[in-house]
Design brief:
By secondary structure, this protein is an alpha+beta fold. The chain is built from five helices and twelve strands. The protein has two domains: 13-159 and 257-273, Pleckstrin-homology domain (PH domain)/Phosphotyrosine-binding domain (PTB) (PH-domain like, Roll), CATH 2.30.29.30; 167-251, 2-Layer Sandwich (Herpes Virus-1). Helices cover 23% and strands 23% of the residues. It has helices at residues 23-36, 130-151, 220-233, 256-259, 263-273, and strands at residues 13-14, 50-59, 64-72, 75-83, 87-95, 100-104, 113-117, 123-126, 188-189, 196-197, 204-206, 216-218. Strand 9 and strand 10 (196-197) form a beta hairpin. The protein binds zinc ion (2 copies). One zinc ion is lined by residues 190, 192-193, 195, 218-219, 221-222.
Length: 277
């Protein structure tokens, strides 16, 4: 039988379905729980099994970064790597019944990528090889389909969160197309469409419950659309006009924020894995 400890660098390992409720699987889940420590939530649940795991490069706001991913039969879990195969933090958990995948075409050094789309978070990840990409995608799809079938539900993509346009893709505001970004004129992300916009073009907020319990920054185009659909459905208004600080701290809620604290460990990991070569 395959031992979980023989994991090769950034190679993912998938277990077959008949193997799932084995003692080895339970032990592995307990170990992963321990790797996240107090920063994570309990991962061992009745009926939950670990299907696969590995390192993927996740496109963050400023640059791509390695993240450890765990595919369970009902959730996708990922986190930042503190010590490879031993210690992770910043755990994110996405329910698979909401997950949709979309192919991303290769572009220079960024190859073997695809989008992971969900209401709470959407982003692009890259695998080390084309084979790994297709394995990841097919395993995720199989888990999603099995889950939908089991629960007798279909997916809804209306409330999916946008994939954020990377900061580097915009030197001017994507809304007014005039405002040049600088140290003073900061970049902001619309939480509805993911575009990089200036402060003036995103001075409205809207409650997007799938993403946060607080109203989030939206661009003027999305604000108009949201207002229009609100008027049509007669839903209670949720816009928030006061942008108290002008400083959008929630813009930093991306994975980039805490990386500073563990900067060295992150850089070491990135070099060691060398994922995007
Ligand atoms: Zn603008
Ligand atoms: Zn928008």
């Amino acid at each position: 039988m395959m031992t979980w400890h023989r994991i090769i660098r950034y190679t993912m390992i998938f277990t077959s379905y008949f193997n799932m409720n084995s003692e080895a699987n339970c032990r592995r889940i307990a170990f992963i729980e321990q790797c996240f420590g107090a920063s994570g939530q309990p991962l061992a649940l009745p009926g939950r099994a670990l299907v696969g795991e590995g390192v993927l490069t996740k496109m963050c706001r400023k640059k791509p970064k390695p993240r450890q991913f765990f595919l369970f039969n009902d959730v996708l879990v990922y986190g930042s790597i503190i010590i490879s195969k031993k210690k992770y933090n910043r755990q994110h958990l996405i329910s698979l019944e909401d997950v949709k995948l979309e192919n991303v075409d290769d572009e220079m050094s960024l190859r073997n990528g695809w989008k992971i789309i969900s209401p709470s978070k959407s982003f692009v990840v890259y695998a080390a090889t084309a084979t790994e990409k297709s394995q990841w995608m097919s395993h995720i799809r199989k888990c999603v389909n099995d889950l939908l079938l089991k629960r007798g539900i279909t997916q809804n993509s209306e409330n999916d969160s946008p994939v954020w346009v990377p900061d580097s893709d915009a030197s001017t505001c994507m809304h007014c197309k005039k405002s040049q970004f600088s140290l003073i004129n900061r970049k902001h992300h619309c939480r509805k469409c993911g575009m990089v916009v200036c402060n003036a073009c995103s001075n409205q907020k809207w409650l997007l419950p799938q993403q946060s319990s607080h109203p989030l920054r939206v661009c003027l185009t999305c604000y108009m659309q949201l207002t229009k659909s609100k008027n049509m459905t007669g839903v209670t208004p949720t816009p928030v006009h006061d942008d108290t600080s002008g400083e959008d701290t929630s813009d930093e809620e991306d994975d980039d924020r805490t990386d500073g604290a563990t900067g060295e460990a992150q850089d070491d990991t990135f070099t060691a894995y060398d994922v995007i070569n």
